[in-house]
Amino acid sequence: MVTQAKPFVKWAGGKRHLAPQLKPYMPRSMDRYVEPFLGGGAVFFYLLAEGRLKSCKYITLCDMNPKLINAWVQVRDDVRSLTAYLDYIDREAEKAYELDADGEFYLKVRARYNDPDVPNLEQAALMLWLNRNGFNGLYRESKRSGYNVPWGQYAPARKLDRRNLLLVNKALKGVSLVCGDFTVTMTRPTPGTLIYCDPPYAKLGDSSFVAYLDKGFDEEQHRRLASAAVRVGEAGGKALVSNSCTPFALELFEDKGLLVRDLVSQTMISRSADTRGATREILGITKHAFKRA
Ligand SMILES: C[S@@+](CC[C@H](N)C(=O)[O-])C[C@H]1O[C@@H](n2cnc3c(N)ncnc32)[C@H](O)[C@@H]1O
Fold it and tell me: Are residues 155 and 79 in the same domain?
């Protein structure tokens, strides 16, 4: 399928602007596509638009964030009910913002979202609404306070693009969505599989944003990921692993025998505005020949 569907959540570290730079390193077609660090899925949507997933028999998208995967599942399985719920929140927001627009409604929605007993469909709608209306579209949770992103000061409240949600719904038919650690989708590599990995990056310094979830992604996890990528290559698949250009990441990729390529990115989410700008990113690529099954 070729589609104009776009990411429906804004996600820290999203690869929307970088995806075209990945294209030269990706096979033109493949049997199976796996994205273990899904986030907003920018690379998945890019490959769909480029027609590269047309001959794919299996597509598996995975992330460790259960609320994020729930939102993807609701868009795939029940987009009509999801948009009906979003319509309801939009109407409530309009009424509340007519009375005042100081962010109180946003805080109410956020408190409801953090209630552990919220049903899955409602949770997905609340998450998508908060993602459009929270500060800078970032997603941050802590054990103590749950999702804690402040109001983005949008008044009137921003709405989700319904047409895009319907396009995404169609694009996700037959796609497996998995919630779990990346190892779940990388343990049994097969020929003809392309795996694109975009983990939380090795830290550049205090301002770099890696806290999608309470647990970080430490050096040991980067090592495990690089080893899993090598096994994908050995099995006749291909793995691409993104990271920031740090001495740690460079050394790791070289030690594991991955090819290293430079990419240039715009870091959009950073705690201080003056650290925004071009940063160097690298791509670790498996060296073995890619074989279709
Ligand atoms: C850099 S973001 C991915 C952004 C994505 N490429 C995009 O374009 O939106 C990294 C993602 O990895 C997820 N993550 C963190 N640790 C993980 C793990 N151990 N296994 C799988 N996913 C993980 C986070 O929840 C986050 O969504």
Answer: yes
